[in-house]
Amino acid sequence: MGGKTQFFIIITTILLAAIATVFLPIIIKYHRHHHHYHHPPPPLDLPSNAAQFLRSNGFTFLANLIHISPNLFLSTPESTIFAIPDSAISNLSIPPYMTIELITYHISPNKFTLQDLFQKPLNTCFSTLFQQQKISITKKDEKNRLLEINNVLITIPDMFVDQSVAIHGVSGPFASFKRFPEINELPICTLINQSQVTKVDFIKIKAEWKMVVKFLSLNGFTPFAFWLYNVLDGIVKDHPDLHSMTIFAPPVIEVMEVPAPMVPEFMRAHVVPKKYSFKHLVSMSRGASIATLCPGREIEITGTVVSVSDELLSINRVEVTSPDLLSSRSFVVHGIARAFAMDGDARLST
Fold it and tell me: CA–CA separation, 339 vs 350, rounded Å?
């Protein structure tokens, strides 16, 4: 292992251990709330034994992290850990908090040996510690002892197995960050999960919206912020399960151009019920459409220019002038040159 890589692993492990200390109570509280179990801490020798097997198989980063922050991995009565190689960790270009999220996306609150996984049908989805997101068995060949999770091969099956924990080495992370920094379930798991998602707390959603309103009002988007505030109750009531969102905010709205009865529809046409970073949007093909919170109304990618020095994007023929103006794990705000046109009111985007 090169000196630079080793130094990176040591520094990153220390940093992530500190971040894990902050996020761990949230992860444990979230998971216990949804699964209603309590259990004693893991045996003192379990983290050390697991770390030893990880280190001896070349997974130094996770070995160090499980030694420093064992409860990140062992916060449930049982667990299966899919160990990401050091090389894959060091090549990630994501914020530290997302590395913690990525690691929890590779931990299931159930113990699965390789044989347990082979006994499950293809496309079986099972939970992880990351926000109820699931991973799936995408390929299995029991004869040749080959199995893939989220299209990633298990390279060292049953690296470590005891009564409550199983650890498998995998060839890479279950989520790709090449185009945009998000962890997304495979479609097969998303379809299964739609009927199982617990409603997000009403007060928490509304608090996030109000934070967005305050930010917009202080950064040159006062008219849009004012109208957004006035339609908040209706949006939160109609969409209590809204986990993420993208808001396209114009700096100026000609009040006389939008009749009062159309204001709720107009505002919802500028909100998408999913987080799309600027990099994600520019990676989409021209003509691609995205549904908004306004029923039956979509926005369209009408122009993208990606060069070495610049990236330009237009939606509904309106330029995105301030990409990623405000961003968090659940939402992003993009500033646009002017409001999107509504049917019968083309003046708003001409």
Answer: 10
